[in-house]
Amino acid sequence: MTGADPAAASGTEEAARAARGGPKGREGALVATVALGSMLAPLNSTMIAVALPRIIAGFHAGVATAAWLVTMYLIAMGTLQPVAGKLGDRLGRRRMILTGMALFALSSLGAALSGDLLALFVFRALQAASGAVALPNGTALLGAAIPQGRRGARFGLVGSATSTAAAVGPALGGVLVGLADWRAIFLVNVLILVPALIVGWRALPPDGPPPPGRPFDVGGAVALPAVLAGLAVALGRIGAGTARAARLLPAGGAAVAVALGLLLWHESRHPDPVLQPRFFARRSFAAATAAVCLSNLAMYSTLLAVPLLLAGRPGWTSARVGVVLAALSALTAACAPAGGRLADRFGRRWPTLAGLVLFAAGLAPLAGGAWNEAATLVACLACAGAGLGLAGSGMQTAALEAVPPRQAGAAAGAYSASRYLGSIAGSSVLAALVAPAVGRGGEAPVFILVALAAAASALAAALLEDRPREA
Prior knowledge:
Layout: H1 6-21, H2 25-59, H3 63-91, H4 93-112, H5 117-145, H6 148-179, H7 184-203, H8 218-240, H9 243-269, H10 283-310, H11 318-346, H12 349-363, H13 374-401, H14 408-428, H15 431-437, H16 444-461
């Protein structure tokens, strides 16, 4: 890697020594803290889906209004992470992680005590902002503190924890809502975060010296989330499929394109930009962000399309559909640690490429109608989930290793934003193709596009570098 300044190199070496130098459990405690922080986002984006009916009834709200508790959370998490990662590069990642986790606990408590829907929206937005602060900085700190030979395996453990949280979120949310009320899904975060903060306070390595003084990119910090949010909303309008959305889409899309062009122009001229356009000139970083965006697009489209297409068919209850879909998340969680170890042993490219080829191979039969039979559908989803688990660590590690250590937070934020944008696109653009197909046949185009996105993610992974470039 090139371009690291002495202060940044000193901070990175200090973090690595702190992780290695203490008792053997220190590295494990560091991984556990980052994993718990990473679990918060998927857990809280899936638990609330089960609680929405109670929230709607309790506040006498409309379905469309309450649904923004989910949409707003995803948009805020995806758009704020690049800024939060950049702040961590400047202010210190330990400080940002602990602050983000503490604020997440406080905002969760506030959400649980909300007396009206407006208050719940405010605390839900603070939840997302706090999670966006903790997530990319945990990724960047782990990449700096763990030696290259074990980095993939540790990211594999974090990836497994994240996939497990996504898989158990609906079930845990259902249990909590059934035993108590919707407020319990927010209170459980406090129970998770208090021990995480205690362990993190002891395990997270100290922040190194700040980088040389450069003006902070205030314009980019404001404009980047606004542009990404505009892009997410534009994608959502495509998914809405209404005549009004169709009329407004060209003008909205043009406005977002112009704003994005101006943002990139501004960032290319700033001495220390929030979003570094030159990152995407690095082959491995561009390949990793493209691969995670496309694979998440394919995964979320599948998770959305299958329940809608099976709804109302004989024998397909909601519980049965949920169990079948769990095959994807369960295999992702189970295979992620192995994918990390393979990335450490054989390099970042080949395990990632093999995993995404397996992912695409699992989804391809759905275009031929494999989703109609339960056993075949489970086999396809299990194959796709295993491939995604094998690929995840290599993608993430390659993205971080493609940039100088002093900019790892900004890189982690951009990588995570790419993941969220893929998810938003998958739940909107391709969702528009599902609605006309429900009950009428013609489902093949939906899964053809899913298969194409998965195949494109594998092609992107072929461009990854096996190991980081040396200075």
